[in-house]
Amino acid sequence: MSISKGHFITFEGIDGCGKSTQVKMLVETMNNIEKNTILVREPGGTNISEEIREILLHRHLSDISDRTEALLMTGSRAQLTYEIIMPNLIKGKNVVADRFYDSTLAYQGGGRKLNLEWLIKLNHFATYELEPDVTFLVDILPQEASKRKAKEEDRIERAGIDLQSLVRNAYLELSVRFKERFVVIDGHDTIENIHGSILAELRRRNIL
Ligand code: ADP
Q1: Residue 20 near ligand 1, beta carbon < 6 Å
Q2: Is residue 2 part of a domain?
């Protein structure tokens, strides 16, 4: 669905791939050139979504079921989409998201093996059928990402390299299935080079 005047850009990848770094740089660059842009992050971003985030990432909560996790993630996304993303896009602002839609497909689909087609339908419902204009997949080997990660890991990050490998493969499959929207970026490159590639791609798509 396209309701918007602003552009909706999402960033995806396994934990530690460098996406938060790139999201912050992009939002800063866009605002510097007067492309009015806000940053959102998942799970979280509204009062309700932050409370759901607490449940999802709580360190001691190991007995959450895979379906509960999927529903909470998409519940958080629904609130963020309704309360923040859609109103801003309608106003003509650009929105850059640190994770969205595809995180559920990669983590709950690829990682936890829930049925992908169901998850796609659940996502459509949660996002009011809003689709990103472009999705940057910052792709990196799980071993490299784990070296970068801080010692204090949250519940999902503690799940380890095997899960991260499943999630990475799922992301790469999504980038083929949704190839119009996906741009795969080599996350092993330097922070500045990655930022440059992202700007170049956005210019190519007439977003910058
Ligand atoms: P994510 O949001 O994907 O989990 P971050 O952006 O928080 O990842 O980056 C994780 C760590 O790796 C941070 O310490 C960050 O400074 C570092 N980092 C980010 N991008 C790169 C890069 N291209 N090369 C080396 N280190 C990086």
Answers
A1: yes
A2: no
